[in-house]
Structures are given as structure tokens and as C-alpha cells.
Design goal:
Layout lengths: L1 H7 L5 H13 L8 H13 L3 H4 L7 E4 L2 E7 L6 E6 L1 H13 L13 H15 L7 H14 L4 H8 L4 H8 L1 H13 L4
Antiparallel strand pairs: 1-2, 2-3
InterPro entries: DNA_brk_join_enz, Integrase-like_cat_sf, Integrase_catalytic, Tyrosine_recombinase_XerCD
GO molecular function: DNA binding
Pfam family, one: Phage_integrase
């Protein structure tokens, strides 16, 4: 089911990302603020992990390695082992969140269900008038932003997401239609 759902799920724009997180944190009439869910979505959008893997995170999973931090996880969906550097700013963000909420090193950072996050996100997106957005939109936004910021290096994004091929990654972030449109735009030669 996730594979078919993801094809319909859009990647966020940066503006949508900011608006959703801000609205989730501030709340609105009929919807209380929810820092926990906002923080989980921020991590998904900044680490590129699936929400199921974000929900398994514990502070002790982020390990100091010399002058940097690393995270080792086994992805729930694929069973693949993944080790990567966590930017210092993200590590500090997580640490501050845990301190504010008295989360111990061995505790789950987000003791909440994926369904609860999807439900809250749906409420916020309805309020903002956004369609086709789910938690997976945050991972797609991450992939798209990394792709654009790194010279459109599809192989880099493929490795980050642990996809089996560049073609899978291209479909995942919707590159093909963008490339076709760009090629048509570049070719235009009006006289």
C-alpha cells in the first residue's frame, strides 16, 4: 500500500514545509499546538528518514564520533542498515527537545503512532488548503532539496535514500517530468 500511496504523495515546497511546521507548533482555532509532531516532521525533512524510522529513534542512537555525531539504524521498511552523519545543528535540536521534555537517553523521542501523526498532519493541511501531502512528503522534500543543492546529482540522492537504482530515485522525486519540461523550455527558438 505504501508504494501506491507514495506515487500520489507530493514533495513539499519549502514554503509549505515552513507553513506546516509553523502551524503545527502554533495551533489554530480548533487545533491545539503540537510540538512533538512538528519536531518529528522536522527530523524527517532534515534527515530523510521515513516517519516509521523517526518514531523508533532514541537519544542514545545518536553517537558522538570524534568531532561529529552519527546515527546507525536498521530501516524498518527495507531492513537495510544505515549509518550517517547527523549535522551538529540537528543533534543540538534533538538534544534540546529531549531536555525540554525530560526524555532520557534510552527513551523513545516520539512515543506516538504513525497514524496519530498522519491524522494531525491531515488536519493542518486541510486548514492550510494543501492537498496530496502525507508524512512521506517530508522525505520527498528532503530528497528534492538535496538533489537541487548538489548539482542535480541523482546518484548522491539514490545513495542517501538507499534506492536500488537511479531510475527509482528519479520517479520518487518526479525528476523525469521536470527534465522534459526544462528541455522543451531550453529548446524554444522564436524568431
Amino acid at each position: 500500500m505504501e508504494a501506491t500511496m507514495n506515487k500520489k504523495t507530493k514533495a513539499l515546497t519549502t514554503e509549505q514545509y515552513k507553513e506546516i511546521i509553523h502551524t503545527m507548533r502554533e495551533g489554530f482555532s480548533g487545533c491545539r499546538p503540537n510540538e512533538r509532531i512538528a519536531t518529528a516532521l522536522v527530523l524527517e525533512g532534515n534527515l530523510g528518514l521515513r516517519i516509521s524510522d523517526i518514531l523508533k529513534l532514541r537519544p542514545c542512537d545518536i553517537v558522538r564520533d570524534g568531532d561529529r555525531y552519527r546515527l546507525e539504524i536498521t530501516e524498518q521498511k527495507t531492513g537495510k542498515r544505515r549509518v550517517f552523519t547527523v549535522p551538529l545543528v540537528i543533534q543540538q535540536y534533538i538534544e534540546n527537545y529531549c531536555l525540554r521534555h525530560n526524555i532520557r537517553r534510552e527513551d523513545l523521542i516520539f512515543p506516538i503512532t504513525e497514524r496519530a501523526i498522519q491524522k494531525q498532519l491531515h488536519i493542518v493541511c486541510d486548514y492550510l488548503g494543501f492537498e496530496g501531502i502525507s508524512t512521506h512528503s517530508f522525505r520527498k522534500w528532503y530528497a528534492t532539496e538535496i538533489y537541487k543543492a548538489n548539482g542535480y546529482d541523482i546518484a548522491l540522492v539514490q545513495r542517501l535514500l538507499q534506492h536500488s537504482s537511479a531510475a527509482v530515485t528519479q520517479r520518487y522525486i518526479g525528476i523525469e517530468p521536470q527534465r522534459i519540461e526544462a528541455a522543451i523550455e531550453k529548446h524554444t527558438q522564436l524568431i
